[in-house]
Amino acid sequence: MAYQQLLGAIGEPQVKIVRLSTWVAGAPEHESRKLELAARASQRDLHPLDWVVELKSVLLGQYPNDSRFRLMASELQWVRGHQTGWKRLPARPLSHYKLGAVVMDASRVVYVLPHVGSQAYTGLMQMQYALKVRAQFALGRQDCRPNDPFPAFDDLVLPQPPARDWAVFNPRLFPEDSDVDGSVPYWLIALSERDSL
């Protein structure tokens, strides 16, 4: 258990969520080019309003691929009428990626998810959008581990719960739409900033 907690602390995953246009404006040219080539190879048209989800962990290089990653996302929408405050509408789940797990370096991968909302602003109504991501990463058993000091250690699931709240991993435990980061063990929950289109 202590070994899992140590690896969990070392490899604590972080997420950054921005619009594609914002990500491209701040990314080095070689990373923007990588994303462009991945889009061309998969024959996907990217839109400036698409969402970029950048995942970072020093342990990502230990994952053979992203087949054991769970990444769920929902686009959130708020509307404000002429005489009302902001009202949140039901979340819209995003069921597919435009681009999945484009490797930037040994510790970062980028996903591109489609935007759902459209620009809507009149004198009577204004809209704002955000993306909520729920992510989990399972590092599988390695085939060859000579002299392994922890032979009973099978899988590492990130993010690990804090030591004071540590619990056994339950693969059937999923976060609810209302959950925030830290409320569900083994799940990273992140919300982008709200923006108007």
Task: Give a quick set of tags describing it.
197 residues; alpha+beta; five-stranded antiparallel beta sheet; four-stranded antiparallel beta sheet
Explained architecture:
By secondary structure, the protein is an alpha+beta fold. The protein has 3 helices and 9 strands; from the N terminus they run H-E-H-H-E-E-E-E-E-E-E-E. It has helices at residues 2-10, 20-26, 29-41, and strands at residues 14-19, 51-56, 69-81, 86-94, 99-105, 108-113, 125-139, 156-158, 188-191. Strands 3, 4, 7, 8 and 9 form a 5-stranded antiparallel β-sheet that branches. It has a 4-stranded antiparallel β-sheet with strand order 1-2-6-5. The longest helix is centred in the N-terminal third of the chain and has 13 residues, at 29-41. The chain is globular, with a radius of gyration of 19 Å. The N and C termini lie far apart (46 Å). The mean pLDDT is 85.
Could you give the topology of this structure?
Layout: H1 2-10, E1 14-19, H2 20-26, H3 29-41, E2 51-56, E3 69-81, E4 86-94, E5 99-105, E6 108-113, E7 125-139, E8 156-158, E9 188-191
Antiparallel strand pairs: 1-2, 2-6, 3-4, 3-7, 5-6, 7-8, 7-9
Give a summary of the structure in a few sentences.
The protein has 197 residues and is α+β, with helices and mostly antiparallel strands. The chain has helices spanning 2-10, 20-26, 29-41; strands at 14-19, 51-56, 69-81, 86-94, 99-105, 108-113, 125-139, 156-158, 188-191.
